[in-house]
Amino acid sequence: MVGGKTLLVANAAVQQKLAAKYDTPVEIGYPFQTRLALGKSNEMEQQIVLWNINLDVNAAHLFTLFLEKMATNPQLSVIILQSSEQQRQQLQLQFLEYCQSQFAILQDFSQAAQMDVIRDHDYQPILKQMKTKAGTEKPSQAVVDGLNQFFRLSRRLQFSPSLTRKLVLEYFDQARLFVDLTEHPEAFLQVQAISAGIPQLTRQESPYMHAGENGQLAKDDAGLMAGLSTYLDTLTYWNEALVQNVRLIEKFSSERLIQYWEGQQSGNV
After folding, report:
1. By C-alpha distance, which of 181, 184, 199, 183 is closest to 246?
2. What are the distances in angstroms from CA 90 to CA 65, 95, 123, 194?
3. Within a domain: residue 153?
4. Which CATH number do you get for residue 202?
5. pLDDT tens-digit readout, 6-48
6. Does residue 157 form part of some domain?
7. Which stretch of DSSP H or E encloses residue 202?
8. Does one domain contain both 78 and 166?
9. What is the pTM of this model?
10. What values do phi and psi take at 157, rounded to 5?
11. Which of 1, 24, 40, 195 is most enclosed, with most CB atoms within 10 A?
């Protein structure tokens, strides 16, 4: 509320929804400030995508698309942010089934040991089973190679169900791309993407994501795959988004936000 008369929200979609429901004026406000903290992802061989799912009901389907992209891009890693326990278990099982379809040698090992690898990156149970099965013999090269491939793939998927400020700063410092395909993208994380200079994929535009400038719309499967290719396959469009993000860093700086709020209070905005 401003002066007890206006409700401030973070994006246009929420503004339209609440304006239709309440008589109170609803305006877009900017509660989070940017900071100049450009990341170093363009210097890294690994391409980290931060995917905020936050109770997204389409997460299981979208995950199949990420797996498809991971299959063709060995540098791609995905960190899944703010998943519920149910979502996390579902996606981990989905990932296990995908791995089993890729590595036939996994049928010789217990599902529990495989899940230890996926869930905790704990390789000891499955390595112990490998040694037990081999007995006094040396494990075959095919088994060793298969397990190593499984281990490498598992390290490219990470879950971060809860976020601390330290984790957010660490993730965005290394991320190449931020993806939030929920109905209302999380403004705080969008601001972190701007501060780090990385592009965004969302289902709708907002004050923090302007399609064709610092990100792209991904309203369907084709849009998601196109967006991933745009920002991961080459740095051309990524660099263009970086330039736009630097401009937005200035727009949402603490000084500019103070001016905005002062204008709200005086009625000049």
Report:
1. 199
2. 15, 9, 21, 31
3. no
4. 3.40.50.2000
5. 555 655 666 677 677 777 766 665 556 777 789 999 899 999 9
6. no
7. strand 200-202
8. yes
9. 0.85
10. -125, 130
11. 195
